Structure formats: C-alpha cells, structure tokens
Amino acid sequence: MSTNGISTAEDFCASKETARRREVKMPGQEKPFLLRRPSSLWFLQHAEQLDQLIQPPKTPEELVAFSRAVLDLLDLVIVKPKVRASPGADELSPDDLDFKDVLFLRQWVIEGMTEENRETEKFFRGRRDATEAGASGSDVLVPPEPASV
C-alpha cells in the first residue's frame, strides 16, 4: 500500500485486477459467476490459442487443441467458482458447464478484447470516436501527387 499518497505496484495491480472482474450471469446458470477478462498482454501472448478458440476445429488435432484452449480459458476467466479438470471442494468440473456457457465465455473474452482495442485506438487517435469524420481515414485530405511526365 502507498505510504506517502503515491501509488505502489501493489496498488496498481489490485486496482487493475478489480477493474477486470465482473459478476456475469451465463445462459445456462441461475446465479452469476465472478469472471475476469484477460489483459491486453494475454491477447498478444496467446494469439495462436485465441485463434484456436475462434476458428471451428476441422481435424482431430485441431479438436484436441481447441479442447486444451477451452480448459485454459475456463481456468483464466472464471474466478469463482473455479473450474478445474480435477475439481476439489467448491470447484466445478468443465463437464458441469453447458456448452452454451463455454461459447458464451469465449464470446465474452473476445468482446473484451475488442472493447480494450477501441479504448486503445481512442487514445492513439486523440480520443476521437470511430464515427467521426476522418476516424477511418476515409475523409483525410491527401495532397495531390505531381503528374508524371
């Protein structure tokens, strides 16, 4: 904790972690789960794994990779109750979740990625809304090139 009013790394991490957590009611459940969206860095480090979650598996090898990616995603995203391949007390097995819950979680993570990307784009574009003129580059004035002779 800060001692002189200046944030410490612990303060920053706790605040960031709290901001990423949400109580979310999944379609196949009566009560909400506590979920945590992955960080931007996770998306960069796990691009291949994310691709396995987005693309439907076509081969047995891709199905195995998809299954592993789903288990990793459940472990990362579900804070409470935890989901484990070998559940302990107060934990669920992946088999306890409906497949529609797994698809919902996958979509929830992907939407979080795009929300964070939009926030990052706003920062780098001078905080302009994507609906503003020029935000997509379509209305940007380009000086004419000299005619070739």
Describe the structure.
The chain has 149 residues and is mainly alpha-helical. The protein has one domain (19-123). The chain has helices at 9-20, 40-45, 47-54, 60-77, 99-124, and strands spanning 21-24, 33-36, 78-80. A three-stranded antiparallel β-sheet has the order 1-2-3. It starts with 8 loop residues before the first helix and ends in a 25-residue tail after the last helix. The model has no long low-confidence stretch (mean pLDDT 75).
In terms of topology, how is this protein built?
Elements: H1 9-20, E1 21-24, E2 33-36, H2 40-45, H3 47-54, H4 60-77, E3 78-80, H5 99-124
Antiparallel strand pairs: 1-2, 2-3
Q: What's a concise summary of this model?
A:
47% of the residues lie in helices and 7% in strands.
Keywords:
3 strands, mainly alpha, 3-stranded antiparallel sheet, globular
> Major beta sheet, specifics?
3 strands, antiparallel
How many helical stretches? 5
Number of strands: 3
Work out the helicity level.
Answer: 40-55%
Strand order of the largest sheet: 1-2-3
List unreliable stretches of 5+ residues. none
How far the N terminus sits from the C terminus, by CA atoms, comes to 69 Å
Structural Rg: 21 Å
Could you spell the SSE succession in H and E letters?
A: HEEHHHEH
> What does the overall shape look like?
globular
Instruction: Tell me, rounded to a whole number, the average pLDDT.
Output: 75
Class based on secondary structure composition and strand pairing: mainly alpha
Structural domains: how many: 1
Proportion of residues in extended strands: 5-15%
